[in-house]
Amino acid sequence: MLGGYTYGELGSILAMQGFAGFSLFSVLLLMALGLAIIFGQMGVINMAHGEFMAAGAYTTYLISTITEQYFPAFMPYYFVFAIVIAFFVAGALGYLAEYALIRHLYKRPLDTLLATWGLSLIMQQSYRSIFGAREVSPTLPDWLMGSYQPTEMIDIPINGMFVLALTAFVTFAVFYLMYKSNWGLRVRATTQNRIMSGAVGINTKKVDRYTFALGCGIAGIAGAAFTTIASTGPTTGTLYIVDTFMVVVFGGAASLLGTIASAFSIAQAQSILEFFISGSMAKVYTLFALVLILMFKPEGLFANKVRR
Amino acid sequence: MSFVYNKLMGGKEGLTGFILLALLVLVVFPLCLDLFRLNLVGKYLTYAFPAISLVLLWGYGGILSLGQGIFFGLGGYGMAMFLKLEASSPENTAIQSTPGIPDFMDWNQLTELPWFWEPFGSFAFTIAAILIIPAAFAYIIGAAMFKRRVGGVYFAIITQVIAVILTILIVGQQGYTGGINGITDLRTLNGWDMTSDYAKYLFYLINCALLLGVIVLSRFILTSKFGSLLLAIRDKEDRVRFSGYDVSNFKIFVFCFAALISAIGGAMFTLQVGFMSPSFVGIVPSIEMVIFAAVGGRMSLIGVVYGTLLINFGKTAFSESFPELWLFLMGGLFISVVMFFPNGLAGLWQDYGHHITDRFKFITRLFKRKESLPLDDTAKSELAN
Fold it and tell me: Which residue(s) pair with A156 in the sheet?
């Protein structure tokens, strides 16, 4: 595998593939944060999570098209607004989905899987009917283009750095919300003991609804970030859903720290392997290693001792 | 007699359902449908095998496997490898740069048959492999998961990931597996033309016979003590464990059995359709199999066959005329089955079926009158005495 490369070249390859891994890491982490909140805190398997991400991506695309046509002067700044709006659009969709669908199924976790899969089919077909089957991508503002070259051989794209910064910001925000705010306290209390939380006056139904909406909203941010890396099609969401679930399960369902660690290791393993062997085999090895590890450590990397 | 009636057929209700299903697939379909449609029905019926396996696994055992496509695929690929080797005899493939190996290997610059293809030259080995390899694979997965008490949602996700891994492997390793196109151009079985009308009828009937056999066998498992244990494990796993049963072994057994059934379906699929491709292995087909079971009724061995047929007929009809509507309909079906009819068609029949059976009461009344006649005679003679 190492044949033909000098150590200097290998270092640059590692740095560049590592950074490519950071982009994958960002999207995976943003997706997984939302899923970890929904799955880890509520026990709901949201197979439509990828479609909520696509909702964010399409929102970004729409805003970019509108800005380009009507407010060209606003182009350099629209992206920041797009992220916020993507969050609210996906969050609102999630709120609706929880109200109409999920809240009836909390006692049957395996059935949420089927129902949300149905939801994902409907959302996919809606995207196809509205935006067409072709992949679309928004016009990115100029400051997101180009790359940064610390040395001759290393070439780091700016959009990747932006997404990484965004991910870091969202992660800290989620941490603050879950572990420092009153609302997070209520969410965690509901996870640990639903009946007791209800007894001390927490409106658990409201907590559930906003938790689900928040998870979907974060998926929307993931979608906005995703548009800077690749183009969006109706089936974009499904490509990432399995990986995202692996991230959450591998990290330990109820642990946000575990989610970060596992998103990092999965993305890096895949991205660095990808340089040496074909992309598909890199994915096979990564997933296979994950399954093997999960067989020996089913509770994931960072198990949270929650009484069920 | 009571063993057959109670254990294999599942009492009066099971027997009636079984006879009606047998009449439908063995008599009504062959008489009413032309060969093309019959072949299509045969294809749908192969999906009923994994659906039945999910009744055992999910309906009774409470273990949701999102990877029945793995086993369906393993069975199908096993059969396809045998047929492909036969189709690529040195005479048939004389124009290739390496004659005697399947065409896709030649396109991918392989110069000799890979080792794992070699034994599939023998029909006996292939049949054994179709039955053993999926079951053995299921044993490995099941032992690793259930012994460590991984279950529920985690099991579903992990089986799904294994299905993804297998699909990526098949698509990625084009030279060994035929890639995304799968293994195609399968025409003969032991020198016997598979595409003739006669062969199509024969395969259809074999498929139906196997399906009915699988139903009887599954019924036997479910009416036995094992079936009750399975239900108990689904509802209160810990209590069964504390009663001294090794829960994981029961789960492993039912998972292996489910894999075996699915693999038979896969092999029959290849024989009837004439090819096998990764699009019958991955996440989407695996979840579709679950929805067949859910729509038919996850607790009903007979119901899932109807569920499978119904969805597939619908899919064919809709995707021919309104391809856009189909996904909406399918999604709506998923949601409504889960939310409003958790027991599927079989549950609907149980709740509302008596309205229909009441209409046909006169048939059973006819039979009853005949039975009562001799009684009347004896009654008369008694009166005369």
Answer: A148
Q: Searching chain B, which residue's CA lies closest to the CA of residue A293?
A: B144
Per DSSP bridges, beta strands A156-157 and B192-193 are unpaired
pLDDT of res. B382: 55
Contact yes or no for A247/A32 (Cβ under 8 A): yes
- Domain around B384: 346-385
Hey, are the CB atoms on A122 and B327 less than 8 Å from each other?
Answer: yes
| Number of domains observed in the structure of chain B | 2
* Confidence (pTM): 0.86
Out of B149, B156, B332, name the one closest to residue A110 (CB).
B156
State whether ipTM is beyond 0.90.
Answer: no
Which domain covers residue A22, as residue numbers? 7-238
How many cross-chain Cβ pairs, A to B, lie less than 8 Å apart?
A: 114
Both structure tokens of A9:
């070249």
Cα diameter, chain B: 97
Q: Which residue has the tokens 């996850």?
A: B298
**Per-residue pLDDT tens digits for B299-313:** 889 999 999 999 998
Q: Is the pLDDT of residue A221 over 90?
A: yes
Residue A170 lies inside a defined structural domain of this protein: yes
CB A291, CB B161: distance < 8 Å: yes
The partner residue sitting opposite A284, judged by closest CB among B158, B165, B332, is: B165
- CB contact under 8 Å between B328 and A122, yes or no, is yes
